[in-house]
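batch job 7 of whatever, protein = Major facilitator superfamily (MFS) profile domain-containing protein
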Amino acid sequence: MPLEQPNASPAESSVNPASSGFAPLHIPLFRDRWIASTVSSLGTWMQDTAGTWLMTLLTSSPLLIALMQTAASLPVLLLGLLAGATADIFDRRKLLIFWQAWMLGAVGLLAVLTFLGHISPWGLLAFTFLLNIGSAMNNPAWQAIVPELVPRELIPDTVSLNAASNNLARAVGPALGGLMVAAFQRATMGAGSVFALNAVSFAGVIWVLVNWKRMPLFKSALPSERIAASIRSGLRYVRYSPPLQASLLRAFTYTFFVSAIWSLLAVVAKRDLHQGALGYGILNGSLGLGAVIAATQLPKVRRRFSADRIIAASTLYSVFTMVMLAYVRSPWIIIPVLIVSGSAWTSTMSTINTSVQLGAPAWVTARALGTYLMIFQGGMALGSVTWGFLAEHTTTPTALASSACGLLVTLPLVYRFHILQGPLPDHTPYQWKRPAPELVSPFGVDGATTGLGLDAEYHEGPVRISVEYRIEPERYVEFTHAIHQLRGVRLRDGALRWGIFREAADPSHLNETFVMESWLDYLRSRERMTAADQTIRDRVHALHASDERPRVTHQIYVREITPELKSPTQEP
């Protein structure tokens, strides 16, 4: 069944990709989204600083303070797959509006309670958790709409600009948040004001989304998957995609150890550097300032160095940063160290994020991003708990030094999992030249089996697809290599099982067999095939020793139908 693929957007024809990295901002729709996102991120980072500092005033426990980072990260760990699945199933525009409204409501209620002085450490953690449930469900859809706004060749620059947006807010937001808290006699009034401003910032994003006339890149002609099936197919794709697995492993390893910087910075500022809310905001903002610098310069850096080298250099500098935070007590030394550390952070995470966005086709983009965000925030959440617990039971320098040692030791172990190596696959949906095979009911073309009709049979299964090849002996080795590459395609696109068998009496006769859950899933697998997948398939078919195409048969598992279940209209 053919895909409904819209024509190239006006952005693709009017924008000439530039080496400056700012070309996406020439696209009005992306520019509006970018501005709204920057304002919202500014409010978010002001809230992050105000909330964390408020927690240091409500409790002296390093663990509870570190749990603020966990409350921000744990929802993504729990909901990343669900968020990705819903973003691939439902209308992303409506989904984004709902979750932006959720976050507005959560932070608005937190502001009211804070103004009234009815907030406790556990209450602050609870509302931070609720706010970030909305963020967790929002983020996969928010990132997945990027290919709908800009042409594919601008995606790396777009990811860098999105990182610059977030980190520009990170550079200014923490200092503003700390300044607002310090400007009031009561910290609760200052924190409540920050929370209220953050609530207003979500309204701007909602306004942009309401006025967006969406044209999705991928629209299936088949019924939507159910959420559970969508999650399974997303996980199956990641399982059989080595490039995505490499990106996820590198993301988890880096965030788990580097989370010590984010989760313990407030403790370092207060206990070791003897700074107040404004001082903590400046330290946090230093990380953001470095991140902005990196985001604007990253396109130039990418042209000179490979992704693996960028990540390795950033990792080594993060080790240095944690050692400095552990043992240096001068803010004037720490601030420039944190600025460069922010550059290292953004260089790593922007590179990995780009690899995920370019490594998945449109039909599974949000699920891949949901999995990435789940792994990313999972590393942050688990790391924050680990280093906060260690700091509470030993010392903060011990926790920071331990995380630095762990990051240094794991670098050579994960370096062999390469990022953005080699040419990027062409994920353009393949346009089939042959129609899908017809499904015929065993009781006739009207599909009357049990009175449910032919549509019900689309959900029957499993379905076994068999492909027969004739391979000459001198091409046997080449064929085995090519067909096992095709295995990954079949499994990523929905196959439950796959195998290749040769006939014992005639080794030139080989049979490829793969099993789909239902006929509908088989039709979906045809929709999901990309141009890159078809290149692998064509390579296999080119080795077939016949002028005719390999013979393909489709078999559906036959279940017992008892006479009493037959339709009343079916004659005996």
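notes: Residues 454-565 form a domain with the Alpha-Beta Plaits fold (CATH 3.30.70.100).
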